[in-house]
């Protein structure tokens, strides 16, 4: 059974590597190969260390290994990321992290969460109670626009 904890800046490299594996595996059926490559080649965002250091990132570990993570941007009330190791998908790790992230948001007096869901993740977030607001093109820092769905959930 995975154990959750707050991430530390020492986790950053492992988090980013997990994210890249998850994008390559989970998004390939929904996006063109050139989009996946540009998405995966992008460097870690400058704001990620601050989000982690600020206590907004939870990780799940299974037998001492990183199994997934979720990031809450407290200032914007945004679920910045939920990624699960491809081999661990479908085992409840992602929903466990999302539920814990929602609890963290409530503790921080956030009444409504927003996120920009990749196309493959829309059903996951819908099952968790998020509703679609609109389809959009997410301006990725690699210079590409990624088709996504803006979603929200009242807490």
UniProtKB/TrEMBL annotation:
Keywords recorded for this protein, A-Z: Acyltransferase, Transferase
Q: Which PANTHER family match?
A: AMINOALKYLPHOSPHONATE N-ACETYLTRANSFERASE-RELATED, AMINOALKYLPHOSPHONATE N-ACETYLTRANSFERASE-RELATED-RELATED
Q: Where is the signal peptide?
A: none
Q: Which domain of life is it from?
A: Bacteria
> Which parts pass through the membrane?
none
Domain (N-acetyltransferase) spans: 2-155
Q: What Pfam families does the database record attribute to this sequence?
A: Acetyltransf_10
Protein name, entry field: GNAT family N-acetyltransferase
Under SUPFAM superfamilies, the record lists: Acyl-CoA N-acyltransferases (Nat) (SSF55729)
Q: Which GO terms describe its molecular function?
A: acyltransferase activity, transferring groups other than amino-acyl groups
This protein's species is Pseudoduganella lutea
């Amino acid at each position: 059974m995975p154990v959750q904890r707050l991430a530390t800046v020492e986790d950053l490299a492992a988090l980013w590597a997990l994210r890249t594996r998850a994008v390559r595996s989970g998004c390939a059926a929904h996006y063109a190969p050139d989009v996946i490559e540009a998405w995966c080649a992008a460097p870690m965002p400058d704001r990620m260390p601050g989000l982690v250091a600020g206590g907004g990132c939870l990780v799940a570990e299974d037998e001492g290994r990183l199994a997934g993570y979720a990031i809450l941007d407290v200032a914007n009330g945004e679920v910045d990321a939920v990624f699960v190791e491809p081999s661990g998908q479908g085992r409840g790790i992602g929903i466990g992290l999302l539920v814990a992230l929602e609890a963290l948001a409530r503790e921080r007096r956030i009444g409504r969460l927003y996120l920009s869901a990749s196309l493959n993740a829309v059903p996951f977030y819908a099952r968790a109670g998020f509703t679609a607001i609109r389809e959009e093109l997410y301006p990725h820092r690699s210079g590409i626009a990624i088709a996504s769905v803006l979603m929200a959930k009242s807490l």
